[in-house]
Amino acid sequence: MRNTKSEFPNPKQYRSRVGRGYQLGSLWLKNRFLRSATMEYLADIEGRVTDDLLKLYYDLARGGTGLIVTGCAAVEENGRAWAHQLGVWDDRHLEGLRRLANLIRIHGDGCKSAVQLAHQGSNKTGYSYGAEDQGITLETLTEKDIRKTIRKFGEAAARVQAAGFDAVAVHGAHGYLLSEFLSPATNPRRDRWGGSLGNRMRLTLEVYGAIRGRVGVDFPILWKLNSADYLENGAGPEEYAWVAGELARAGVNLIEMSGGLKDQLRLRAQLKQEAGPREAYFFPALAPFRQAVGKTPLAITGGIRSLSAAERLLEAGADLIGLSRPLICEPNLPQRLLSAPRPRRARCTSCNLCLLRIARQPVKCLAFDPFQKILTAL
C-alpha cells in the first residue's frame, strides 16, 4: 500500500509556483520538478531491469518529483555507453520496463514517468569516460548504419509506450550520438549528414520522425539538448536555440536545456563558479531558447539547488526545473522543498564524486554516505 503521509509536519503543498501543476501536452504534472535523466548502472548485464534499479525509482517516485526521466536506455546493443546500462533494444526488456512503469505509477502519488533513449556514438565524448568502446566512429558510419539507428530509435520508443510509461525522452546532448552529429567540433562528415547546421541536424529530425511515427501524435516526446558545447569549434547558444526551435516546430513536446561535450568534471566545476548565487549553469541561454521555441515547454537543468533559484527560473521563462545530482543525494528533495516549513537548499554540494563512479559502478552520493568514510579508512 502506498504511504502518502508526508514526513514533514504541517505540509503546505503548492506554496510556490514550482509546486503548482502543469499541463505538458496530454500529461498533467503535479509540480514543476523534473528528475533529469541520470545514469544508474543498475541494470543486469543484458540491460534488463533489476530489483536494485526498481528500488532506486521507488525512492524517487515517493520523493515528490512531478516527472521522472530514467537514465538513458540504449536503443542498440552496440550503442551502450557502459555495462549495466538499461536497455530498450529488444522485446525481452519489456517485462522489466512494465514493472518499472507500474512501480512509479503505484507509488508516485501522481508522478509521471518517461524513459530516455540514447545511442552512445563514438565514445569520444559524453559521460561514459571510455567505459564501453563499441568501435563506432562518425566517419565510418554508412547510410545503412544510420538508417538502422533511426529505425531502432523508433522501435525503442514503441516499447516505452507499450510498457506503460507516460512519455518518451531522447538524449540529444552531452556528446552522445545525436549530439555528436549536431556539433561541428565532433562531426567531420561532408555528406548529407554533416557540414551545414541543417545537415548536421538531419539525424535529429529523422529520429524524431521515426519516434513520432511509432508513438502517435498524442504521446509526449521530450528532448534533451545542449545549450552550448563549451568546446573549441563547438556550437553555441545561437545555433542550439535554432535547433530547439526546429524541434519545437516539428512537434517535440518539451526541450530540456543542458550543455557540454567533454571534460564534464572540469566543466561542471567551472560552470558552478561562474553561476554563483544564481545557481543555474545554463541560464544565459534561457532567453534565446525561450524566444526560439515559442510556447513549447522548456526545462532547464544544471546547478539548481534551492527553491528560490527555481522560482526565479520560472519567472525568467522556464516551465520545468530539472534536478539530477541533488536527487542522488536526496530522492525526497522535491517533497522537502515544497512541504518543509523552512525549506533549506539541497544538501548536494556539486562535489562531482558521483560523476567519477557512474560509468563503472552503481550511482550513489559519496559525500553523504556514512559507509564511505569506513571504506576510505580501510
**Helix content range:** 25-40%
Strand order within the widest beta sheet:
3-4-6-7-8-9-10-11
- Beta-strand proportion: 5-15%
Low-pLDDT stretches: 1-14
Q: Span between N and C termini?
A: 41 Å
Supply the CATH superfamily name: Aldolase class I
Largest sheet: 8 strands, parallel, barrel
- H/E element order: EEEHEEHEHEHHHEHEHHEHEHHHH
CATH structural architecture: Alpha-Beta Barrel
What structural class do the secondary elements suggest?
Answer: alpha/beta
- Mean pLDDT reading: 91
Report the total helices: 14
The domain count comes to 1
Q: Give the C-level CATH assignment.
A: Alpha Beta
The CATH topology name reads TIM Barrel
The gyration radius over C-alpha positions equals 19 Å
Outline, from the CA principal axes? globular
Number of strands: 11
Topology:
Elements: E1 22-24, E2 27-29, E3 33-35, H1 51-62, E4 67-69, E5 73-74, H2 94-107, E6 112-118, H3 143-163, E7 167-172, H4 177-182, H5 197-200, H6 202-215, E8 221-226, H7 237-250, E9 254-258, H8 264-275, H9 286-293, E10 298-301, H10 307-316, E11 320-323, H11 325-329, H12 333-339, H13 353-357, H14 370-377
Parallel strand pairs: 3-4, 3-11, 4-6, 5-6, 6-7, 7-8, 8-9, 9-10, 10-11
Antiparallel strand pairs: 1-2
